[in-house]
Amino acid sequence: MRRRDFITKGIGAGIAAGASHSLLATNWQGKNGDESMNMGMVSSTNSEELPYFWDRLTSLDFKKAVEKAQGVCIIPIGVMEKHGPHLPLGTDVIRAHEMCKRAAGQEYAIVFPDFYIGQIFEAKHQPGTIAYSTEMMVKFLDATCREIARNGLKKIILVNAHGGNGSFLPYFLQIQLESPRDYAVFLFEWRESKETQEKIKSLRKSTTGGHADEIETAEMLVICPEHVRMDQVNAQSGRDLDRLKIPYASTGIWWYARYPNHYAGESSGATPALGEVRLSARSQQLAEAIKAVKADTTTLRLQNEFFQQSDSPLETKTWE
Question: pTM for the complete prediction?
């Protein structure tokens, strides 16, 4: 299974001790839209500028922001890992952050600071990778969601752009049913429309990919071209080595067996035009997801019903 297959399953904290923006933040957070968009702001109902980034809100404005967001918070998620020989280590979070910024500019939601604590054991052999323990990953994300909810945001959307989180985050959703809570966690799952697929196909120059490939590189050329080293794009191979063949079974070493350079694809043909197609499409879908989650009254009701019945399983209602 290609790495991109994992990315499509789950879409989309600070490094180590806190939740803070990427070290690249001052260079890439304001590339698109008008001045208010660049500053992470939208106009509030009283004509004041109300930021949608959590860390840019004042404490006095936070209550207004929670009300305007209708209790919705989105978390851009990725990891710190190698992205071929030419892209920044924080590429996935940078891309998730950009999607959140664009979406919140269309449909207001509070954007939590960039979250770098995810599953990336498969890249521990590469320089720059930060791989946290399984226990820390689960506890940190759980504690973050609980703190977000304690601050009045009861609907939390995880926006993942890292393929290695494709198993971790769906598992995290399932363990939300372990014990009662007054909030719900959602996982943004984008779907490439046929029109978007055709646009991407017409602009692509390569046919292989999966990680730090032409499309991912193209997105980064839109967001922060100054940090994309196109002069290094062919310094290493992104070829599939296909070193492991076991029928009817899978194993955790599969990615390393195929792409030990932690690079899958060929990226020299990447262009900003290609990146903009996918960024725009996915940001629009995220905005639609935010709107749908705002309107949703079923998830928390069913979640509460489930917890009530799980206390007395012998009295659980039988549904016809």
Answer: 0.87
